[in-house]
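Suppose a colleague, Dr. K., hands you the sequence of a protein chain of 375 amino acids and asks what its three-dimensional shape might be. Before reaching for any lab equipment, you can write down a predicted structure in token form. Begin with the sequence itself:
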Amino acid sequence: MTDTSTRLEPASTTWPDPPQLVDVLLRDELETARRRAEAFGPEYALIWSEIDRSVRGGKRFRSSIVLRTHDALGGRCLEAAVLVAAGFELLHTAFLIHDDLIDRDTVRRGAPNLAATLRNVSLALGADEDRARRWSDASAVLAGDLALSRAHRLIASVDIPGRQRMQLLDLLDETLLVSAGGELADTAFGLGLHLPTLDEAILVCESKTAMYSFRAPLRAGAVLAGAGDDVLVELDDIGRLLGRAFQLVDDLLGVFAPEEKIGKSNVSDLREGKHTALILHARTLPVWDELESNLGREDLDQVTAARMRWALAHSAAPVRVEEQVREDLDDVIARLTRRPLPPEMAAVVEALVSQVRDALDDVVGHVEEARCQAG
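The predicted structure, expressed as tokens, is then:
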């Protein structure tokens, strides 16, 4: 692993731009790995280059939560916080690579994703379609595994007391366990192996997204800051609510937002037949008659998807999801009043609530646009 001790200034209450330090660390880590991979051949080095490209496209949302939580709770372990924050970015990248492979998505952040890029490379080298797909699938599996391994290495390398390090490693283990379980359940729902209840779909939101996007980063920052068990428990509950609301908004965006807005297909969820809260609400409404025959069709086209989007927009389904999100966000704010966190940490939570609320307001606008389109 790259030695970061010469790049990180001593921790203080004034941050020396920690997000930039995360970017520097990730760049150096992945470049070192790519150079080592060259000894095994250009294909292996290419996989690491693609991991690097995948990491660079992120918004640093999860690493920001780690850093801001650590700072807000009076943490003095800047080097450790940067290492853990970088680990969460690699964890996120690994999950995205594997998720795209499972969902057969080819676009991420408005560009061909890792699997699609490697498929195109193999086609250019003369492989036929079947061999190109098989090689790109294998590459995506391995790339996700490599990113996971590197995330674990970064988090395990933090120079903090042994008890805190074990707390972080236990947290990483729990995050992988819960997130994988949520992904497996979500895949089963999409394949029709099990028709979920609304409560089961909400649990998937908490497992797939809340755990690694909110609960784990909040807890990691708090552990690094030496927070007490009462703070850890409270942040865990807050992270569950925030992550659930975040995923519900993301499910709406995945159907109603333009592709140039979300950087990926807005037909994919309908084509995969994902049983999100939006679709489960729709099943109980008259609109289901207009959706059932097309939901989950592998050959679902843009025109048919647009008609489904229009029908959903005219139903009560998106309104019910919106109400659930607003209820969860209001609950978070209420918790800050009932069980106050330190003011600086409460401000971090309030900022996260505002981010999710802004995203919800944005998607409500997209639902209205879909409602105004010709059916």
